[in-house]
Design goal:
The chain is mainly alpha-helical. Helices cover 87% and strands 0% of the residues. The protein has one domain (3-126): F1FO ATP Synthase. It is flat and about 75 Å long.
């Protein structure tokens, strides 16, 4: 075996055992956190369903809107091919606005999951 491979394997082994050693110091705290986390499970389940509903409804609505916008643009171009440039520009701006609604729904879902502003309120209700 080459010297680089031996040094790399030794380094990986050393880092892995160091992580285990550091984890032992916080075993009691982990049990307390696990017991505390059990109280928050229904809240987080509701948050995940709310985020899924936000993304689902947002994606469904924007998908329907984009389909109607493209259908209208194609219909307009088929009636007046000379206005293709103006119709395409207007359609692209409209599609960007519609897509921004889906992005807003994604941002709301991510905020609900990762930076939940209602967590403190729920913790106060639990006591």
């Amino acid at each position: 075996m080459s010297k680089k491979l031996i040094v790399t394997l030794f380094f990986v082994l050393m880092v892995a055992t160091a992580a285990l050693a550091f984890a032992q110091d916080h075993a009691e705290e982990a049990v307390e956190v696990k017991l505390l986390a059990a109280e928050y499970v229904p809240f987080f389940v509701a948050v995940v369903f709310a985020a899924a509903a936000a993304m689902g409804l947002g994606s469904f609505g924007t998908g329907i809107g984009m389909g109607n916008a493209v259908r209208g643009a194609v219909d307009g171009v088929s009636r007046n091919p000379d206005a293709f440039g103006r119709i395409l520009t207007t359609m692209m701006i409209g599609l960007a606005m519609i897509e921004s609604l889906a992005i807003y729904a994604l941002i709301v879902a991510l905020v609900l999951i990762f930076a939940n502003p209602f967590l403190r309120l729920f913790g106060a209700i639990l006591g």
